[in-house]
From TrEMBL:
The gene is aroK. Substrate binds at D36, R60, G82, R147. This is Shikimate kinase. It holds the Pfam family SKI. One of its GO terms (molecular function) is magnesium ion binding. It comes from Prosthecochloris marina.
Amino acid sequence: MKQPSLIFLTGFSGSGKSTIGPLLANSLGYDFLDLDKEIELFAAKSINRIFAEEGEAHFRDLEHTVLEKLVGRTELVVSLGGGALQHNPCFSLIIASGTLVYLHSSPEILAKRLSHKTDRPLMKGDNGERLSKEQIEKKIFALLEQREPRYKTAQIIIETDTKRIGSTVEELTRKIERYVRRAEKRQFVNKPKKHTKSE
Ligand SMILES: Nc1ncnc2c1ncn2[C@@H]1O[C@H](COP(=O)(O)OP(=O)(O)OP(=O)(O)O)[C@@H](O)[C@H]1O
Ligand SMILES: O=C(O)C1=C[C@@H](O)[C@@H](O)[C@H](O)C1
Ligand SMILES: [Mg+2]
């Protein structure tokens, strides 16, 4: 069954899912999990190593395996990886089991945030080499174009470019609380009634 209070944070790499997720969970009084971290624990190796040794397809399968364990959880914020929605089995699972929240950011801001990070294998060159800010920006444009249609299926979308982290957390807390309250009420009203023997 779909659990409105199982919150999946999506958005491009660098949009702030891992930064905002724990703060948001704290503000909502929910638990928190970072899918990338859970995969690293499950596989007992870093994401960089999983990509280098087993390839992206294997990493996507791991995302699905770890996600499956979360179905049915309530009052939980999950920060997804930036590409999790591109794998059809993961996308279906997420849509069917919780509420999707999209942290929207522009390619320019994403490139600025990602240009100093070394732990995003997809933001490196074909041979694992470091890319310039301009090259990263080009890669982000291309990937974002492919990924955005699925990000935009989210029930809640928030702009992050012009907001401080604290403001994003505050605004999301309000939006999520309202969304979950309404969705749970709808589920309660639409629940089929049990028939007693005399009926
Ligand atoms: N206004 C802002 N909102 C969100 N993050 C910001 C903001 N300003 C700066 N940042 C920085 O941008 C970075 C976002 O990285 P983070 O790891 O949270 O992204 P992510 O969405 O989890 O990426 P990935 O998909 O690769 O896991 C952090 O270093 C964060 O401090
Ligand atoms: O954008 C992506 O496809 C990725 C983002 C990260 O969160 C990690 O899940 C991994 O580096 C892949
Ligand atoms: Mg992250």
